[in-house]
Structure formats: C-alpha cells, structure tokens
Amino acid sequence: MISAVFLTHTAAPSGAELATLRLLTALARDGRVRASVLLTADGPLVALLEARDIPVTVWRNDFDSRSLTIAGSGPLRLLGGARDLMRLGRGLGAEVSAAGADVVVAQSTKALLMGAIAARRAGVPLVWQVHDRIAADYFGGPLAFGLRVLGWLAVRGVVANSRSTLRTLFTPGRRAVVAYPGLEPGRAVEREAQRAPDAVRIVMVGRLTPWKGQDVLLRALPLLRHRPAAVTLVGGAFFDEEEFGDRLRALAAELDVPVEFAGHVDDPTDHFAAADIAVHASVTPEPFGQVVVEAMRAGCAVIAADAGGPTEIVRDGRDGVLVTPGAPAALAAALDRLIADPALRARLAESGRARAADFGIEETARVVTGLLATVLRRDADSTAVPR
Ligand code: GLC
C-alpha cells in the first residue's frame, strides 16, 4: 500500500479542489493508495473531505497566500512570498514524516514550493499534480518560466490534467502522465427534450473570474437573432475576485440582457439538466474544463472555447461546437445556429453524452496510482544501488 499526502494551499471548493476530492474518494475505494490531505488554509473543502471520510489536517499558519497572487505581484513581493512558503514547507516536512508518507503530491503551484521543501525534509519524493497550464498567458512569462524550472528540479513525477497542460511543462527525465479529471458515476438525470427556439435556456458554469470569459457570453447576447428564454450564470467568486462579479452584473444591466446569477454550487448537474445549451467561453486556454464534461453528461448541447482541454474533450461538430475564444460574434453565430435547430442540438447532446462516459474518475485513479507506483519503484531502485 502506498501512503500519499496530498498538499494544497487552498480549501476553496473550486474546480481543482473538487477534482481532487473525487480522485481521493476513488483512491480510497480502490484501496491501493492510502491518501490524506494536508491543507495550509481552512475552508469549505475541509467539510467536504470529512464527509467522505478522507483524513485531512489543516496546518495553521499566518501566511497570507494572497501575497503571492499571479497578477500584479512585483518581484520583491514574489520573493517574500516564496520565502514564507518555504518556511511553511519546513514545518510541513515534519508533518509528512509523522504521517509516515511515502510520497507528497502537490496540488498547486504554491503547494509545489512548500512541497519541495517538505518532501526533501521528510526524505520522500514529490509529485506535482498540475491543474493549471504553466504558461505566460496565465502566469506571465518570467513566473511561468520559474515555475517550470522549479517543477522540473523539484519533482520526480508529474500528473497533468490534459495534454494541453502537459505541453506547458518541462519533463525531461521525469515520469509524466495525463490523468483527465474524471466524473463520478452520476445519478440519472431527468431532463426535457431540446426546447423550441423561442424557449431555449442557456447556462454557463464557472468561477466568476476574468479568464473564464462570462463577459464574452454577455456581449454575444445582444448580437443574437434568436433571443433565448433564459440565461443563467452559475458560479461564485473566490480568491478575492468578488469585484469581477459586480462588473458582470453592471455589464448585464448596461447591455440590457436578462441574466440570472445563481451563485456557487458544488454540483451543477441540476443547472445543466434545466438548460438546452451550455456555454464555455474561457479567454485563456482552459487547462481541462470539467464543466464541459459535466454539461455533456447532463445532456446539454455544448459550445466551448476552441483552446486547451476542451479541444481534447469535444470533437467539433460531433459532441459539441468549438468556437474562437474571446470573440462574442463567433459565439453569437454558433448560438444562433444551435438555437434555430433543435434537431442539431439533440444530435450534439446525444453524442456528447456518450463522449462524457469516456471521462470517469476510476480511470483517473488508475493512472495516478500507476504514476505513484512507478515513482516509488524508481525511488526504491535508486536506494538499492550501492553508492
Ligand atoms: C483547474 C483548471 C480546470 C480543470 C480543473 C481540474 O481548475 O482551471 O480547467 O478542469 O483544475 O483539474
């Protein structure tokens, strides 16, 4: 049995953390990896883990992770934040040793920095489960470069949430796999057939943050020939981004488009089941895009931004439609085509449902278990070699 500590710096229930929650649940069911979670912040994730009997420890500390935000941190601030994270990592190393872990799995870039120190202290290998594309368009050039180099130096293995994410990393000499964040076997979804053009309901699910591109959908709405009956934005603002939600509300009012803001939910299935068309519109390439699979599984006709993870999920014109990211006119054209044609929507939705079944969490757990086993075997091998 492999004992793994999953390390993360946030307990917000955002996409990466919810994906990890499902992975840990599947690992526990499978039984080959005994996983626990080490968190450096308290929050809703803690109760979600506890409800699933996953051991979790919150490591109390006074580090303010906002001092290390990607946008607008000057080099000095970044260095200061990095120093704090490394200090935190030393304490965490003791915790990892006490837990008797064989391996540390870092869940974020901040966890990578802390984990590098913690794993070294505890004398165990570090694996980086990467949920973000480590690219200039997301982190800025210098930071992206630094993180790639750090990742390469510090880790023995990498788990990327898509091929697109993997392509942004340096991995020579490292074990690297793609483990798509799978879904759990879901309950059967009750839904209506695709509605007539004048009754179409549109939903968009995602954290309210500028790169998710909710504003692209809002700007597409006035361009439509066919006005939908309802548009719902599902998602909360985390990580101090509340201000973007206010901007979206102001934009909706200014464009005079009736949009309902439904807030955050842990499971968006019911929102998808109530909609005909689901829109994904991220303006920077989406690393994976769990909402795309969730929407397909719930029987929506999906329109997704043609970049990153969604291009590995959606076969354009078959399981959904891919559109140029950040272009309200392109999104409006796709929406008009789908709204006008319920038969097309039904076809896309049917094929999308079948495609969604390719993304199961058991497969994710199988790939992650394989990677951990390989990393540890290699570790065992290298200590077996006489020096
Ligand atoms: C992050 C990514 C998202 C992905 C999720 C799970 O939230 O932004 O694309 O689906 O992690 O790996």
Automatic annotation (TrEMBL):
Transmembrane segments: none annotated. One of its GO terms (molecular function) is hexosyltransferase activity. Residues 14-185 form the Glycosyltransferase subfamily 4-like N-terminal domain. This is Glycosyltransferase family 4 protein. It comes from the Bacteria. Pfam families: Glyco_transf_4, Glycos_transf_1. GO terms for biological process: carbohydrate derivative biosynthetic process; liposaccharide metabolic process. It comes from Nocardia bovistercoris. Gene3D superfamilies: Glycogen Phosphorylase B. Keywords: Glycosyltransferase, Transferase. Residues 197-354 form the Glycosyl transferase family domain. InterPro entries: Glyco_trans_1, Glyco_trans_4-like_N, Glycosyltransferase_grp1.
